[in-house]
Amino acid sequence: MDSKPLMVLSSALVLEPACTLRSFLRMIETYVVFEEINPFWSDHLAQYRLCSKTSSVDSGLDHLLLNKTIEMIAFPGEPRLEIYHSLYGVKGNETLEIRFFTLDGLLDLPFRLGKLKHVVFGDSIDLFEFETVYTLFEVIDAVAWELSFHGTQRACTLRR
How many other CB atoms sit within 10 Å of the CB of residue 1? Predict the structure, then answer.
């Protein structure tokens, strides 16, 4: 990345196979302007700095997976479309919410980008999956949001 990191925020993100949550957090520390994208980053980085610098706790998970979901919602109320991201821990074929794991247990897991899921009117039978592109901005914001469920005080007071 050059000396103007904001210029790459809208670029499609391609992760190296060795990418982990720890390497992602190191990027946020290195390019401090990225902390301004989401109000949770300062708390997350403070929590990260308390973790081991070399190896994380074994969580039993295989990897972390970020998904993008587009959901059509029609009832109750006016029909609407919601787009959101979710970060899960993956163990075998099972996806688990990361809020049940400590940050120290997530740091060295491989970090992957998943497919886009399209949910039609809440019907999981009509769930479609597509290859998609993630921008650096989306991933920085999504990771900050998901980590906010790891005990920061502001998590309870802010709503999306």
Answer: 11
Task: With CA atoms as reference, report the closest residue to 112 among 143, 149, 70.
Answer: 143
CA dihedral 9, 14, 15, 16 (to 10 degrees): -130
Could you list the pLDDT tens digit for every one of the 160 residues in the chain? 667 889 999 999 999 999 999 999 999 999 999 999 999 999 999 999 999 888 878 889 999 999 999 988 876 788 888 899 999 999 999 999 998 888 999 999 999 999 998 887 666 666 788 999 999 999 999 999 999 886 544 443 444 3
Q: Are 66 and 111 in contact (CB under 8 A)?
A: yes
85 beta partners = 68
> Do 41 and 35 contact (CB within 8 A), yes or no?
yes
CA distances 147 to 70, 97, 100, 102, 130, Å, are 21, 11, 11, 10, 25
Distance CA 16, CA 110 (A): 10
Tokens 């997976």 found at: 65
As a whole number of angstroms, the distance between CA 34 and CA 37 comes to: 6
Q: Is 22 helix (H, G, I), strand (E, B) or coil?
A: helix
pTM: 0.85
